[in-house]
Amino acid sequence: MRHLLDTTDLTLGEIDDMIKLSMDIIDNPEKYAHICDGKKLATLFFEPSTRTRLSFEAAMMELGGNVLGFSEAASSSASKGESVEDTVRMVSCYADIIAMRHPLEGAPRVASYKAGVPIINAGDGGHAHPTQTLTDLLTIYREKGTFDNLTVGLCGDLKFGRTVHSLIKAMCRYNNVKFVLISPKELSVPEYIKTDVLKPSGAEYVEIENMDAAMPDLDILYMTRIQRERFFSEEEYLKHKDAFILDVDKLTNAKKSLTIMHPLPRVNEITTAVDDDERAKYFIQALNGKYIRMALIITLLKWGELL
Ligand code: CP
Question: Which of 10, 156, 234, 288 lies in disulfide reach of 14, CB 3.0 to 4.6 Å?
């Protein structure tokens, strides 16, 4: 049984295959409209979500399957004290595949030990968000046609932003990718990302606190929200909440070919005027999330011989 708990669970070849499958789904949706007939996806969301949960559900429906699940811990028996292990053991009796979001880092991994069906990590605390990374990779592929030789700026809350951690893990496996890590010192990437991921990969990276100087070099600018829910105090959050705001003026010195990404939700780190700039790709990125999740569902079900 294969699960998707972290980006590195997939080889580069497997990621390539999933991207190719997504592209075929985009071009030939009718070919896939009944591939999951009779199959069920459970979405177990112990934390809020709009894009991830709904795109997973839309993905399964467009494959001909059905969905069940819950969107908050309060409406599940977790509120009565049921463990994650028991929850997934039960849900494995009702569904063929499970997408799970949880506030605790590692909860989907713990779930995978007891699950009888594939588990997909749909975000675990401040740790990882591998399906967002697949979404990001599909977006980069569609915009740039390659993952090599890119300078990627990651801006905002790089400490708690799990999408950033997963994207670095994925992108540093490609050739000649440079990272510009833009954050206040207090919100810089966790040390383990530097020592266990960036340094062993040999990828070049710099850490800076001001986005303006880096802007002309960037091929991709990946903006992120300050993760209010992960701060220990509201005071700490308020100190950083408007640390970076991307507006039209800041883009004056950027490349014409820049791709502006954001996993969303946005709060105020990108002004709405930027939405009209043809380099803004974050809403297309959210749409790509549905296609790559369709490819992921098909792939995991096939690997588990459930399809
Ligand atoms: N990008 C993302 O994970 O969005 P949601 O929190 O709305 O699922």
Answer: 10
pLDDT confidence bin for 277, thresholds 50/70/90: very high
Task: Please state, in angstroms and rounded to a whole number, the distance separating the CA atoms of residues 88 and 12.
Answer: 29
- Asked whether the whole model's pTM tops 0.85, one would answer yes
65-69, 125-129, 241-245: the lowest-pLDDT one: 241-245
Residue found under tokens 């540093």: 172
- Residues 182-213 have pLDDT tens digits of 999 999 999 999 999 999 999 999 999 999 99
Output the CA 244–ligand 1 centroid distance in Å: 20
**305 dihedral zone (left: phi>0; alpha: psi -120 to 50; beta):** left
- Is 129 considered catalytic here? yes
Q: Where are the beta strands (DSSP E) in the chain?
A: 40-45, 66-70, 97-102, 119-124, 151-155, 178-182, 204-208, 220-223, 259-261
Q: 280 pairs with which residues across the strands?
A: 260
Q: Is 167 in the pocket of ligand 1 (CB under 6 A)?
A: no
Distance 45 CA to ligand 1 centre (A): 11
Q: Which two tokens stand for residue 217?
A: 């070099």
Residues 252 and 193 sit within 8 Å (Cβ to Cβ): no
Contact 244, 181 (CB under 8 A): no
Q: Residue 5 corresponds to which tokens in the numbers above?
A: 């708990």
DSSP state of 263: -
What distance in angstroms lies between residue 202's CA and the mean position of ligand 1's atoms?
A: 30
Q: For residue range 144-170, what is the model confidence (pLDDT) as tens digits? A: 999 999 999 999 999 998 999 999 999
Residue nearest to atom 4 of ligand 1 (CA): 51
Known catalytic residue at 281: no
Token digits of residue 13: 């070849």
CA distances from 125 to 146, 174, 211, 268 (A): 30, 26, 26, 22
Pocket of ligand 1 contains residue 71 by CB under 6 Å: no
Say which of 3, 40, 43, 52 is annotated catalytic: 52
